[in-house]
TrEMBL record:
Any one of the GO BP annotations: intracellular protein transport
Ranges where the record places region Disordered: 1-94
Species assigned in the record: Arachis hypogaea (Peanut)
GO molecular function per UniProt: GTPase activator activity
PANTHER family cross-referenced by the UniProt entry: TBC1 DOMAIN FAMILY MEMBER 13, TBC1 DOMAIN FAMILY MEMBER GTPASE-ACTIVATING PROTEIN
Coiled-coil segments on the chain, per record: none
Bias type Pro residues, positions: 18-29
Protein name: Rab-GAP TBC domain-containing protein
Gene3D superfamilies assigned: putative rabgap domain of human tbc1 domain family member 14 like domains (1.10.8.270), Ypt/Rab-GAP domain of gyp1p, domain 1 (1.10.10.750), Ypt/Rab-GAP domain of gyp1p, domain 3 (1.10.472.80)
Domain Rab-GAP TBC: residue ranges: 125-393
Compositionally biased spans, kind Polar residues: 80-92
UniProt xrefs under SUPFAM superfamilies: Formin homology 2 domain (FH2 domain) (SSF101447), Ypt/Rab-GAP domain of gyp1p (SSF47923)
């Protein structure tokens, strides 16, 4: 069979660069698993990353348009760690023009979602609360009609408050509430003296040692293990960002918000509950909403993040259902589609990786896909990638496939020169790159 010719533009010197000196090794990445909505839990684990491969300097290119540039304060040779949440930018004329277009679109009575997606896919600016509002629109949390926003937000935020009141309580409080609801006619003194039930009034289902399926205490003890896991994972979410991890009260309140969201999600989705990695998908949403310059929106970041988190996971539902692993919509099929996409656009690289080196794409692509690239790039770059993922009218899944394929092609010369070990290290510790260029290349694969 005739081998498909590699397009000339793939052989450009842009795709490779000299190996720089090795940087300090990044913190180890913990194993993560995948998630789903109220369907059976997916139990596969995301493989841990191997030791760091020296990164390539970001490629530069003159032809693609420059979207909003997000810069951070980390050293340029330090890869795969987040940064403190203060991003600076020097907007170009195009950036300023696009921001003006976004603000104009967001100010309309009824927002044109097609136009909003077109603008957002190029990257969103960090200021003016634009990303916060646009993400809520793209995830379907806000309707296009601005006149409905106030009522919709009030309803959802009230609903989340009820979730917290009903779910984030221990069984002792539930028992007291049950008793008080039957003693409303008693005088205040009697109620005060009867706050705790006597032994004879405690039913079997309300007893702390009850093993009954409907026992609130039995359910409480079953939940303890998951709550402990959530607590551990939240505490190690972006440990080098003061927003998430520091001794400040602000960081601790942010951790508490993440824990609340994940616990409530787990309780409302008993078929899925919580698995490691969910905290990494929640963090960008909460960070963006909490940094909204509108004080009211920032105050309700926890509630808004919960509902957007549910919407985000629903878009990747089939990848995370264990029973669908071997089906045409499961995670293995998704990874196979990535392999086929690479073969279509660069058969030489595909053959070298999968036939010659025998690098199974599951070894690296499983984490890329299930955690939406949050572990492959720094935090600021992840936000830029998510702008594109959320804004594509075809859905985030297809866009994610194109970005993953572009990631492989951007390092093709290093992969073609490598063997199984070096290539696996490279792909499990992806080097820093120009995100604008990465997204530009991914867009070239659009059919």
């Amino acid at each position: 069979m005739k081998k498909k010719k590699v397009p000339d533009w793939l052989n450009s010197s842009l795709w490779s660069s000299p190996h720089p000196p090795p940087p300090p090794p990044p913190p180890p990445f913990f194993s993560s698993a995948t998630v789903d909505l109220p369907i059976e839990q997916h139990t596969s684990a995301v493989s841990s990353a191997s030791p760091s491969q020296p990164p390539s300097p970001p490629a530069t290119v003159d032809d693609p348009p420059e979207p909003q540039r997000i810069q951070d304060s980390r050293p340029k040779n330090h890869t795969h760690t987040s940064t403190d949440a203060t991003f600076s930018s020097s907007p170009s004329a195009d950036d300023i023009s696009r921001q003006a277009e976004l603000l104009a679109e967001l100010s309309k009575k009824v927002i044109d979602m097609r136009e909003l997606r077109r603008l957002a896919c190029q990257g969103l600016p960090d200021g003016a609360g634009i990303r916060s509002t646009v993400w809520k629109l793209l995830l379907g949390y806000l309707p296009p009609d601005r006149g409905l926003w106030s009522a919709e937000l009030a309803k959802k935020r009230s609903q989340y408050k009820h979730f917290k009141d009903d779910i984030l309580v221990n069984p002792s409080e539930i028992t007291r509430r049950m008793y008080n609801s039957t003693s409303s006619d008693a005088d205040d003194a009697k109620v005060e003296s009867r706050t705790l039930l006597s032994r004879s009034e405690i039913t079997h289902g309300e007893h702390p040692l009850s093993l009954g399926e409907t026992s609130v205490w039995n359910q409480f003890f079953q939940d303890t293990e998951i709550i402990d896991q959530i607590d551990r994972d939240v505490k190690r979410t972006h440990p080098d960002m003061h927003f998430f991890c520091s001794e400040s009260q602000f960081a601790k309140s942010n951790q508490e918000a993440l824990k609340n969201i994940l616990i409530i999600f787990a309780k409302l989705n008993p078929g899925v509950r919580y698995v490691q990695g969910m905290n990494e998908l929640l963090a960008p949403l909460y960070y963006v909403f909490k940094n909204d310059p509108d004080e009211e929106n920032a105050a309700f970041a926890e509630a808004d993040s919960f509902f957007c988190f549910v919407e985000l996971l629903s878009g990747f539902r089939d990848n995370f259902v264990k029973q669908l692993d071997d089906s045409v919509v499961g995670i293995r099929s998704t990874i196979t589609r990535l392999s086929q996409l690479l073969k279509e656009h660069d058969e030489e690289l595909w053959r070298h990786l999968e036939i010659t080196c025998k690098v199974n794409p599951q070894f690296y692509a499983f984490r890329w896909i299930t955690l939406l690239l949050t572990q492959e790039f720094n935090f600021a770059d992840s936000l830029h990638i998510w702008d594109t993922l959320l804004s594509d009218p075809e859905g985030p899944q297809e866009t994610l496939m194109r970005i993953c394929c572009a990631m492989l092609i951007l390092v093709r010369k290093r992969l073609l020169a490598g063997d199984f070990t070096s290539n696996l290290k490279l792909l499990q510790n992806y080097p820093s790159t120009n995100i604008s260029h990465l997204l530009y290349v991914a867009n070239k694969f659009r059919v």
